[in-house]
Amino acid sequence: MSFQSHHAEQAAELLFVSFNQDSSSLQIGSKTGFKLYPLNSVDTLDFTHENNDRPNIYLVERLFASSLVALVSNDHPRKLDVCHFKKGSEICNYSYSNAILAVKLNRMRLVVCLEESLYIHNIRDMKVLHTIRETPRNPKGICALSPHNERAYLAYPGSIQAGEVQIFDTVTLRAVINISAHDNPLAAVAFNSQGTQLATASEKGTVIRVFSLPDGAKLFEFRRGLKRCADIQCLAFSIDSLFLCTCSNTETVHIFKLEDHKEKSQEDTSWMGILNSTFRSSASYLPAGISDVVSQGRSFATARLPHAGLKSVCTIVSLHKVPRLLVATYEGHLYIYNIDQSEGGECSLLRAHTLIGQSSEPTVPLEESSSDRPLAQAGASDEASSLYATAVRKPQTSSFAKAVAPTDSLPYQDPLDGAVGGEETLGGLRIHDDSEFPPMSHKSL
């Protein structure tokens, strides 16, 4: 559920915005550092942690509501730091052969996405378990990791010409299925919390599809719009998998209801429901292209951002046992909307927070990547050798200390490894302690 800024030189202060696996936390990375915000109230937004010792953070991923965070900085784009923010310590770090484009976590695995490869780490000791090499070129780092412990699937593009999705089981370390989701290349993918459904969108951005796992059968097909294509920036399921939201470079955020059309038509006796039912029943007599459009579902609800062109991420979360739509933008705002669960329609804006802890009253909305290559061999220049990082356990301080260069650079020992660092285990973290790693949330809306 994140949209990475690939242009650190842009004027905007925020470089990264994302929600964690169960949308209990919001993470932002900026030119000055990073912040973590707990999401438990409509009226207030206070950060639980702020760190300004690590500048230019363009990736920050938190493991549920735990103290484990993964960080990547524009100053060292090939280096991943795994940190314990409550202790103010660095657990370990790894350096890779190319710039890190995405990092995904669940309670079993940590996945690092490069342009043409994926590294799967065991989160209990951070060792590399498996490397998926020579993947189709993926300059945007499009991938998703299921938050479920047993169905810990990884999704990534299976083609650069078409919208194929490769599903890989990170527990058994085996490929599961290749899904032909779209005619155009992928733009976004997302799993539901149970790891039983996958949502996809293509670069065209007009159609959203949902597939069941592990069989890959198509469950739902929704049309985001008819008039214009869109750059889909985020897809996100609600925790109970009843809703799917998506935001793009347009000003409209769409919410789709994941229900069977037949059941819906039986319940909907309004003139619009009858009209839609009539269209669907006649779809088999229409040309294939028109038939597909008629049979596709439409938005159950929508929300409007202040203007188009905002880079943003969205999610649906239960606040005070009421489902809310949350949209966080790179302009530095968090918008909270009410969702009418029975009627849908236009979502009303409840609150708009700035991502520095301030809030405002509701207002009416107005209309470095290269090919993957091995690390430098022994005897390379000092500049290349400085890219290597050994695992470092930092002393416990009030804030993170800046990374220091290792005393000895490590040679590239095995071309099958491809990641350097992480020699020490995570013995200092209480993996089985719920206060350190709380159990996965299964909240219902």
From TrEMBL:
Domain of life: Eukaryota
Subcellular location: Endomembrane system
Region of interest called Disordered, as start-end residue ranges on this chain: 360-380, 396-445
Keywords assigned by UniProt, alphabetized: Autophagy, Lipid-binding, Membrane, Repeat, WD repeat
Record-linked Pfam families: PROPPIN
Cellular component aspect of the GO annotation: endomembrane system; phagophore assembly site
Family matches, as InterPro entries: PROPPIN, WD40/YVTN_repeat-like_dom_sf, WD40_repeat_dom_sf, WD40_rpt
The keyword Calcium appears for this protein: no
An example molecular function term from Gene Ontology annotations: phosphatidylinositol-3-phosphate binding
Topological type in the membrane: Peripheral membrane protein
Family: Belongs to the WD repeat PROPPIN family.
Name of the protein described by the UniProt record: WD repeat domain phosphoinositide-interacting protein 2
Organism taxonomic ancestry: Eukaryota, Metazoa, Spiralia, Lophotrochozoa, Mollusca
